[in-house]
Design brief:
mainly alpha, two-stranded antiparallel sheet, two-stranded antiparallel ribbon, 4 strands, flat
C-alpha cells in the first residue's frame, strides 16, 4: 500500500473558518495536503463498478482533468493576494505562478496526452481528432480561458489580476511546444496534439490535413483574442479607486499588451495571406483598441493623472515607452534606402529574418481596411514622439487646438463598417497631436539656429506634460538606437536626434539637476547619449547615409575626438570590405588568420604547461614510494609497471625499529605486492594477531596418510596462543569480520549478495554480544550513542542498551548514514524488505518473543531497538538543520526521513516513545530563523538556508504523514499517534508555525473525519491538552498577578478599553497566554463539529485561577461563534450552549452570545436569535427578575418600540449594563446619531435599534413612576449619558434638546428632567452656550415655559447662569427681554441685576 506524500499546500487558513463549512456531506477533496488514502481507496473501490458501467473512458479522463484544473483555479480564486508565510521567501507573484502551474500543465501537455492515450486504448471507439477536440473544448475553451479572462478583467486584487494576465503569455508559449495545440510541426506532420513523433501523414486525406491546420488556427485565434481582451480593461483609467492600484494594474496591462502585439500581428498577416479578411479583422479591431489604451495612458494621462507616487507613474511610463518602440518596429519597413550593395542588403535581410520580428513587409496586401499605408502612418508619428521624448526630456504640452481638431475628426466620421473612417483614427487622434507638437518645436528651433545640426532650444519656453526619469529616458534612448539599426529608414533621423541631444545635453553646461533627473542621473544620461552616438557611428549606415558628419560633430563637442575617429575608420573599413573585391577580402582573411594563430599558440603553450605539471605530479607520486600509500591502477599491466618502478626506491637497508617488532620475514616481491595492495597496511600487522597473518604464519598444514579413495588427509594445527589472548583476539576477529560483512552491504553490486549480507549482519549483530565495533564502523557506533544522548532528555531511550549491544546500534546507525545502495534497475534498495534496519528490527522482535515472561531485558529489546532507529533518523535531521550548507548531512537526513514512513509501516509494532521521537522532527524553528535574510549573509548562504528550511519542512511533513498512517492502520497505537499529532497542533510539542498549521489541518480535516473512533480519540487528546493548558494557567496565576500589579500604573494612564482587557498586561502573562492559545483554538475547532463539548471548555475556563485561560477563550470566542452559527444556526447553538452552562459559566455564555450577533452594519441579528436570547433571559431569571445582559447582544436588531418598553429594565440595571445596552442599541446607527427617526407607518413600526439622539429623548420621556423606577435612578441614568462624551457629545445633546423643544412648541409637555439636563449641559459643553442663549431659551419662552412651575424655575436658573458669561455675544439678555412683564418682574425679583 502506498501513501500520498506529494500534496503540499501552505495556505494559512483559520481552523475555525476552515471547519465551519465542513459538514458530513462535504468531505475533504483530494487536493488537500493530508488526504486520507484509505478513504480515497475505499471510495474508489466502492464506486468502481458503477462508474465503469455508466461513464465512458473519455468522460472519466475529462472529469479527472477538469477536477485538477478546478482545484487549482479554486485555490487561486481563494488566495488572499498576499505572500504566505513559510513559502521559502517567495514573492506573491512567484507563489501565484506555482498555484497556477497545474493549470498550465493540464492545458498544454496533460490534456493532449490524455486525448492521445484514450484514442490509443480505444482506437475503434474514439477517433484521435474527436478526443483532442473534446479535451480542448471542455478544458480550455469552456473552463480555463473564460476563468482567466474574467479574473484578468474583474479581479480586485492586483497581484491576482497580474497573474491572470501573465497566464495568457505562458499558455501561448506552452501551447507552441512540441505535442501541444500550436506546435509548429502540426502544419506538415502528425505533430501537435495528434502525435509526438515525426512521421508522415500516412492515411490522412487532404481534407483531414486541412482540417487539422484549420483547427490549429482557430485555437490560436481564440487564445490571442482572449489575451487582448484581458489586457484592454486594465489600460482604462479608473480600474481601481486607489490610484496606486490603478497604476499597478495599468503597468501589468501594458506589459501584457507588449507581449501580445507581435503574435497578434503575425496571425493577422497569416489570415490576410489566406484571404480570410473577416478572421483577420476580428482580431485586428481589439488589437487597435489595445494600442489605443496604451498610448492613451502615455499621452493623455500626463499632467492630469491624479494620485500615485512619481515612481509608480514613471514605472507605467517606462512600460508604455517600450510598447511605443514595439509599435514603431512593427509598423515600419525593412527597406534600405540608398544601399545598393548586395552584401549589405543580404546582411540586413539576415538580421531581420528572426522569428520574433515583424515589419510591414510581412503584411500581405489586398485587405480593404488593414493596409500598410495606414499602419505606416501610425509608425511614423510614433517615431516622431519617441524623438520628442529624447530631445525634450519629456512630452511637450499638446496644443489644445490640435486636440480639438483630432477629436472633431474622429467624432465627425461614421463607423468604418458603414463606409466612414478607419479603426486607425482614434490612435492617430492620440499620437498625431503629440508628434506634431514636437515637430513644430523642432522646426522653430531649426529656423532660429544658424547651424541646423546643433540647434539649441529655449527650454524655458517649452512646457511639458510630464518629465522623464533616468529609467524612462534610458529606455527612450535605447529605443531610438535600436530602431536606427533595425530599421535603416529611421537611421538618419535617429542619428540627428541623438547627436542634437548630445550637443545640447540635459542639465545644460553646468550639468545640474533638471526635472526628475538628479545630478548623478544627468551624468548617466549624458554618458548614455555619447555611447549611443558612438555605436551608430560604428555602423556602416552612418557612412552610406551621410550621418557620420553630425555624429562626429557631436562626439567632438563632448571631447571624444579620438574615439570618434576610430569608430568612423572602423565603419568605413567594414563598408570597403563588403563592397571590395576578392583580393581585399583575401587580405583581410590573411590578417585574421594571423591573429587567430596567435591565440592558438597561446593555447598550445597553456596545454604544454598543463602536461608538464601533470608529469611532475606523476613523478612526485612515484618518488614518494610505498610510504605515500600508492593506489594501484585498475589495469594489471599498469599495476605491475608501478610495482617495478617502486623497486628502485626501496632503501638498501631497513629502517631501524624496535627489536620486539622486528620482521621475521624477508622482504620479497610478495611482501611488496601485499604492501602496495593494502596501502601499506600489511607492514603494520602485529604478528601476535593470528587472524591478520597469512596461513603459513598462523597455522601449520601437514599431509596425512592416504585414505581408501587415494586422497591425502590435511591436518591443521593452530600455533600455541594463550586462552585469554585467544578470546580477546577472537572478539577482535569477529568484530572485523562483522565490519567486512556490514560494509559489503553498501558496496556490493549484486542485489542478492547485498540482501544476504544484510541478513547475516542482522543475525550476527544480535549473536555477538559484547563485541566492540571495529575501527571501520566505530563512527557509526559513536553516531548511535550521540543520537541516543540527544533524545534521552525527552524520552526513556536507554543508553545502556546501545552500549550492551554495540553491533546492533552500529548496524542501525550505519544504515542511516551510509549512502543508499542502488539496485540494478536504478531504484533505491532502502525501501525494500532487505533493508538492514528492517532485518535488525525483525531479529529484535523475534528475540523479544522468545524470552521468558519475567525477563524484561528480552521483552524490551524490540522497543529499545526501534527507539534507537528513530533516534538516529531524528539526529540526522537535527545535524542537517544545524549546518544548512553541508550537502552530505542534508542528503543523509533526506534519505533517512524518506525511508522512515515505509520502515514504520512494515515494522511488527510501533511504540509510543518512537512516535514521540517522530514528532520531534517537527521542531524546525531554528532552521526557519536561519532562513531569514540578514545583511551579514551572502547570497549563497541565504540560498542554502532557504533550501535547508524547505527540506526541513518536507521532513516535518513526512513525520505528520507517519502519524497519520499509524493512526489509520494500527488500532493499538492509534491513541498515541493521534495524541502526538494533537500535541503538535496544540503547540505543546515544539514545531514551527507552518508545521503547526499543517498538523491542525491533519487533525481536523483528515483524522477527525476518518471514523467515529478517530474522532473520539482526537477529542480525548484535545481535552488532555486543554487540561494541561488550564493547569499551566492556574500554576502561574500568582506570578502573573504580581507582574500585572507592577504595570498597574501604566495601565491606568492608558485608560480602560475592551481590547486592553483581553491583551496581556505583562511579559509573564504574554508568555502563558501564548502557550494556552493554541490548545484553545484546537478545542474550539472541535467544538464546531461537536457542540456538546463546549461545556468542557467552559468548565475548565471558569476554574479558580484560570484567568489567562479565560482571556484566551474570550479572545477567540468570535471565531467559535461565527463558525458555530454558520454550521448549526445562531439561534439553535445559542439555546444549546445556554442549556449547558451553569451560573458560574455565565460570563463565557454572555461572551458567546455577544459574538453570535453579526458585526456588520448592514446585517442585523435575525429574529430567531432575538427570540432565542429572550428565551434564555426567561429561563435564567432568578425570582422573576430578568437579567438584561442576555438580550444586550441583540438589541441592535430589536424594534425601537420593543426597546422603549425594555428601557426601564436597562435603567434599573447596573451602570455598566445600562451603558453597554445603549452602545449596542446605536452601534449600527452611527449615521443617524443626530436624528430622531419617524416611523414610516406608526401602526406597523419597523425601525430597529435606537440612535443616540433617540436614546436621550426616550430617557427624558420615561415615566419612572409608572414603571416603578426611583426618581434618583431616573436622573442618574441621564447624568451617566451626559458624562459619556465619546458617545453623547455636544452635537447629540443639542439634537435631542432641539427635538424635545420642537415638540414642546407643538403642544407636548416638557419632560421632568428637561431643564435639569439643560443646566448640566451648560456646565458640561461650553460650545452650546450660544445656541442655548439665542435659540433654545427664547423658544421655550415662546412655548410659555413659565406655565409649569418646575420648568420655570429651571429656566430662570439657566438664564441666570448664562446672563453674564463674559463671552462676547453669548448672553441670555435677549431671551430675558422676551419675557412677559409679569414673568420678567418675577425673574428680576428672584435674580436682580
Amino acid at each position: 500500500m502506498s501513501y500520498n506524500q506529494h500534496h503540499h499546500q501552505d495556505a494559512m487558513i483559520d481552523p475555525l473558518q476552515l471547519t465551519a463549512g465542513l459538514h458530513a456531506n462535504n468531505p475533504i477533496t483530494d487536493d488537500d495536503m493530508f488526504d486520507s488514502d484509505d478513504a480515497s481507496a475505499a471510495s474508489a473501490h466502492g464506486d468502481a463498478d458503477a462508474s465503469n458501467e455508466d461513464e465512458s473512458p473519455l468522460s472519466v479522463a475529462l472529469d479527472d482533468l477538469e477536477s485538477r484544473v478546478v482545484s487549482a483555479l479554486n485555490e487561486f480564486k481563494s488566495h488572499p493576494g498576499r505572500a504566505s508565510r513559510g513559502t521559502g521567501g517567495q514573492t506573491i507573484h512567484e507563489e501565484l505562478q506555482s498555484v497556477l502551474r497545474p493549470v498550465v500543465e493540464v492545458s498544454a501537455h496533460i490534456g493532449p496526452a490524455s486525448a492521445r492515450a484514450v484514442h490509443a486504448s480505444y482506437p475503434d471507439v474514439y477517433g484521435l481528432e474527436f478526443c483532442v477536440d473534446a479535451v480542448y473544448t471542455r478544458i480550455n475553451s469552456e473552463l480555463i480561458l473564460p476563468v482567466l479572462l474574467e479574473s484578468a478583467q474583474s479581479e480586485m486584487i492586483p497581484a491576482k489580476r497580474a497573474a491572470s494576465l501573465r497566464m495568457f503569455h505562458v499558455l501561448y508559449g506552452e501551447w507552441s511546444a512540441a505535442g501541444s495545440y500550436l506546435d509548429g510541426g502540426a502544419m506538415t506532420s502528425s505533430l501537435g496534439p495528434y502525435g509526438t513523433e515525426q512521421a508522415p501523414l500516412v492515411g490522412l486525406t487532404e481534407h483531414e490535413k486541412n482540417r487539422r491546420i484549420g483547427m490549429r488556427s482557430l485555437r490560436r485565434s481564440e487564445l490571442l483574442r482572449r489575451w487582448v481582451q484581458a489586457s484592454i480593461p486594465n489600460l482604462s483609467p479608473g480600474t481601481f479607486t486607489s490610484s496606486t492600484l490603478d497604476l499597478v494594474a495599468a503597468g501589468r496591462g501594458v506589459l501584457s499588451a507588449s507581449a501580445a502585439l507581435k503574435p497578434c500581428l503575425r496571425y493577422i498577416a497569416e489570415r490576410i495571406g489566406e484571404a480570410d479578411d473577416a478572421g483577420a479583422l476580428r482580431l485586428f479591431l481589439p488589437v487597435m483598441r489595445m494600442i489605443e489604451g496604451v498610448l492613451g495612458r502615455l499621452f493623455l494621462e500626463g499632467e492630469g493623472s491624479d494620485g500615485g507616487s512619481e515612481q509608480e507613474n514613471d514605472a507605467l511610463r517606462s512600460s508604455c515607452i517600450k510598447f511605443l518602440e514595439i509599435v514603431v518596429l512593427c509598423f515600419s519597413h525593412k527597406a534600405l534606402p540608398g544601399m545598393a550593395g548586395g552584401q549589405v542588403a543580404s546582411r540586413m535581410k539576415k538580421d531581420a529574418s528572426q522569428a520574433n520580428d515583424f515589419s510591414l513587409e510581412d503584411l500581405p496586401p489586398g485587405h480593404p481596411i488593414i493596409t500598410r499605408e495606414s499602419l505606416e502612418e501610425i509608425g511614423e508619428y510614433a517615431f516622431s514622439t519617441l524623438r520628442g521624448l529624447v530631445v525634450l526630456g519629456g512630452q511637450a504640452k499638446i496644443d489644445t487646438n490640435l486636440l480639438l481638431d483630432a477629436a472633431a475628426s474622429v467624432s465627425s466620421t461614421n463607423d468604418f463598417m458603414g463606409g466612414g473612417s478607419s479603426p486607425f483614427q482614434k490612435i492617430l487622434a492620440i499620437i498625431k497631436p503629440a508628434a506634431l507638437t514636437f515637430q513644430k518645436i523642432e522646426s522653430d528651433g531649426e529656423k532660429t539656429s544658424e547651424d541646423k545640426d546643433s540647434i539649441v532650444l529655449d527650454r524655458s519656453l517649452i512646457k511639458l506634460d510630464f518629465f522623464l526619469s533616468q529609467k524612462s529616458y534610458s529606455l527612450s534612448i535605447n529605443a531610438i538606437q535600436m530602431l536606427a539599426t533595425k530599421r535603416p529608414l529611421f537611421f538618419k533621423e535617429a542619428s540627428t536626434c541623438l547627436a542634437r541631444r548630445t550637443m545640447d545635453p540635459p542639465g545644460g553646461l553646468s550639468g545640474d539637476a533638471e526635472g526628475l533627473l538628479s545630478k548623478p542621473a544627468i551624468t548617466g544620461i549624458r554618458t548614455h547619449l555619447r555611447s549611443s552616438c558612438l555605436t551608430l557611428l560604428r555602423h556602416i549606415l552612418s557612412v552610406t547615409s551621410g550621418c557620420w558628419e553630425i555624429l562626429v560633430k557631436a562626439l567632438n563637442a563632448s571631447g571624444m575626438d579620438a574615439q570618434a575617429e576610430r569608430a568612423l575608420q572602423a565603419s568605413r573599413q567594414q563598408l570597403n570590405l563588403m563592397k571590395g573585391g576578392r583580393a581585399a577580402r583575401t587580405r583581410a582573411a590573411i590578417f585574421y588568420e594571423w591573429d587567430q594563430s596567435t591565440d592558438l599558440s597561446r593555447a598550445e603553450k597553456r596545454q604544454r604547461d598543463t602536461d608538464d605539471a601533470e608529469a611532475r605530479v606523476r613523478a612526485a607520486k612515484i618518488a614518494r614510494g610505498l610510504g605515500a600509500g600508492v593506489q594501484l591502477p585498475k589495469s594489471m599491466s599498469d599495476s605491475c609497471e608501478l610495482v617495478l618502478l617502486n623497486l628502485k626506491h626501496i632503501p638498501p637497508k631497513r629502517p631501524p625499529i624496535a627489536p620486539s617488532a622486528q620482521r621475521k620475514r624477508p622482504i620479497t616481491l610478495d611482501v611488496l605486492v601485499d604492501a602496495v595492495m593494502t596501502n601499506g597496511g600489511s607492514l603494520t600487522i602485529d604478528e601476535n594477531h593470528w587472524y591478520d597473518r597469512d596461513g603459513g604464519d598462523a597455522w601449520t598444514l601437514e599431509e596425512g596418510e592416504l585414505d581408501n579413495d587415494g586422497r591425502h588427509e590435511l591436518m591443521y594445527q593452530c600455533k600455541t596462543i594463550e586462552t585469554e589472548t585467544f578470546i580477546k583476539q577472537s572478539k577482535v576477529a569477529a568484530s572485523k569480520a562483522f565490519s567486512r560483512v556490514l560494509l559489503s552491504t553498501s558496496s556490493n553490486r549484486s542485489e542478492a549478495a547485498t540482501s544476504l549480507g544484510r541478513q547475516l549482519a542482522a543475525r550476527l549483530a544480535w549473536m555477538l554480544q559484547g563485541v566492540d565495533p571495529s575501527s571501520e564502523i566505530k563512527d557509526a557506533h559513536a553516531y548511535a550513542l550521540m543520537s541516543i544522548e540527544y533524545v534521552s532528555k525527552d524520552s526513556d531511550v536507554s543508553v545502556q542498551f546501545a552500549k550492551e549491544n554495540p553491533l546492533v546500534s552500529s548496524c542501525i546507525a550505519h544504515d542511516v548514514i551510509a549512502p543508499q545502495q542502488k539496485s540494478e534497475l536504478g531504484s533505491s534498495s532502502s525501501t525494500g524488505s532487505s533493508v538492514l534496519s528492517t532485518r535488525v528490527l525483525n531479529e529484535a522482535f523475534v528475540c523479544s518473543l522468545s524470552g521468558e515472561d519475567d525477563d524484561l531485558s528480552h521483552k524490551n529489546k524490540y522497543t529499545h531497538c526501534l527507539d534507537l532507529y528513530v533516534a538516529s533518523v531524528v539526529n540526522a535531521c537535527v545535524n542537517a538543520n544545524a549546518v544548512p550548507s553541508d550537502n552530505e548531512k542534508k542528503r543523509i537526513a533526506n534519505s533517512a526521513s524518506s525511508a522512515l514512513p515505509h520502515q514504520l509501516l512494515i515494522s511488527p509494532s510501533v511504540t509510543p516513545t518512537s512516535l514521540n521521537l517522530v514528532g520531534s522532527l517537527c521542531d524546525i524553528e531554528e532552521v526557519s530563523k536561519k532562513a531569514v535574510k540578514t545583511s551579514k549573509q551572502s547570497i549563497a548562504e541565504s540560498a542554502a538556508a532557504h533550501a535547508a528550511k524547505a527540506a526541513a519542512e518536507k521532513r516535518a511533513t513526512t513525520a505528520l504523514l507517519v502519524l497519520r498512517d499509524v493512526a489509520f492502520q494500527q488500532d493499538r497505537m492509534r491513541s498515541s499517534a493521534i495524541g502526538c499529532a494533537v500535541a503538535i497542533a496544540a503547540g505543546r510539542l515544539p514545531a514551527s508555525l507552518p508545521i503547526q498549521d499543517k498538523a491542525l489541518k491533519l487533525v481536523m480535516n483528515v483524522i477527525f473525519q476518518k471514523n467515529s473512533d478517530c474522532a473520539s480519540k482526537v477529542i480525548e487528546s484535545a481535552t488532555r491538552e486543554l487540561e494541561l493548558a488550564t493547569q499551566i494557567s492556574i500554576e502561574n496565576h500568582e506570578k502573573i498577578l504580581k507582574a500585572n500589579e507592577v504595570n498597574a500604573t501604566k495601565r491606568e494612564r492608558q485608560g480602560p478599553s475592551s481590547k486592553m482587557q483581553l491583551a496581556p498586561q505583562s511579559e509573564e502573562e504574554r508568555t502563558v497566554l501564548e502557550s494556552v492559545k493554541k490548545p484553545v483554538v484546537l478545542f474550539m475547532a472541535l467544538c464546531v463539529r461537536r457542540p456538546e463539548i463546549i461545556k468542557v471548555i467552559m468548565q475548565m475556563t471558569c476554574r479558580d485561577g484560570a484567568d489567562v485561560m479565560a482571556k484566551a477563550v474570550k479572545a477567540n470566542m468570535p471565531k467559535l461563534a461565527k463558525a458555530s452559527s454558520a454550521k448549526h444556526g445562531a439561534a439553535s447553538i445559542a439555546l444549546k450552549v445556554a442549556g449547558m452552562s451553569s451560573e458560574k459559566e455565565t460570563p463565557l455564555l454572555l461572551s458567546f452570545l455577544d459574538n453570535l450577533a453579526p458585526a456588520s452594519e448592514k446585517v442585523l441579528p435575525s429574529q430567531d436569535l432575538i427570540d432565542a436570547c429572550h428565551d434564555i433571559q426567561r429561563n435564567r431569571s432568578v425570582g422573576g427578575t430578568k437579567d438584561s445582559l442576555y438580550i444586550i447582544p441583540v438589541v441592535s436588531g430589536m424594534k425601537r418600540v420593543e426597546l422603549q418598553e425594555a428601557l426601564p429594565d436597562f435603567v434599573r440595571d447596573r451602570d455598566e449594563t445600562f451603558k453597554a445596552s445603549l452602545r449596542r442599541m446605536s452601534e449600527r446607527l452611527s449615521r443617524y446619531a443626530l436624528i430622531f427617526r419617524d416611523e414610516p407607518d406608526p401602526k406597523e413600526p419597523t425601525l430597529r435599534g435606537m440612535s443616540s439622539c433617540e436614546q436621550i429623548v426616550n430617557l427624558h420621556r420615561l415615566d419612572f413612576n409608572a414603571v416603578g423606577l426611583p426618581q434618583k435612578r431616573y436622573l442618574d441614568a441621564i447624568r451617566l449619558c451626559l458624562e459619556d462624551d465619546e458617545v453623547f457629545n455636544d452635537r447629540v445633546i443639542q439634537a435631542a434638546l432641539d427635538y424635545i423643544s420642537g415638540k414642546f412648541l407643538e403642544g407636548e409637555t416638557l419632560p421632568l428632567a428637561y431643564m435639569r439636563t439643560i443646566i448640566l449641559t451648560c456646565s458640561k459643553h461650553e460650545s452650546l452656550h450660544s445656541w442655548i442663549c439665542h435659540v433654545l431659551l427664547p423658544r421655550l419662552v415662546e412655548g410659555k415655559v413659565y406655565s409649569d412651575k418646575r420648568q420655570w424655575e429651571g429656566w430662570m436658573r439657566c438664564a441666570k447662569m448664562l446672563e453674564n458669561t463674559g463671552d462676547h455675544g453669548v448672553s441670555t439678555v435677549e431671551a430675558i427681554a422676551r419675557l412677559h412683564p409679569d414673568q420678567l418682574k418675577m425673574y428680576r425679583t428672584r435674580y436682580p441685576r
